[in-house]
Specification:
Helices cover about 70% and strands about 0% of the residues. The mean pLDDT is about 95.
């Protein structure tokens, strides 16, 4: 079942409106997912579409998870805009002590540190 949700999320358009994001989240409860794979895929859309209702979940996830597999795509997405990169650097500084050392190196590279 998780693989089907991942296929669904990966197949979504890159740009979604706040209304579309909200409808998806209300209907499927992606922000509340306990599956890290699904949540990471959703949070990538959250970042790309600046979906404000899930920003707290993004920060919580970045503080809780230490694996590069989940962290790198999120930091890469944040680094696509100047404001996102600034936020990414702040979140990285706050959370990097919790990350696997290989993840720290990969994210530092993404952020140009």
């Amino acid at each position: 079942v998780a693989q089907q949700w991942l296929n669904f999320l990966r197949g979504l358009p890159a740009k979604l409106s706040t209304e579309q994001m909200g409808r998806l989240d209300r209907e499927y409860k992606f922000t509340a997912s306990r599956n890290s794979e699904i949540l990471c895929a959703w949070l990538t859309h959250v970042i790309a579409n600046n979906y404000q209702p899930a920003q707290g979940a993004l920060e919580e996830f970045l503080g809780r998870v230490g694996r590069q597999k989940f962290l790198k795509p999120l930091y890469q997405e944040m680094a696509k805009t100047p404001a996102g990169k600034t936020r990414a650097k702040a979140l990285f500084a706050k959370n990097k002590a919790n990350y696997h050392p290989i993840a720290v190196g990969a994210i530092a590279h993404v952020l140009g540190e």
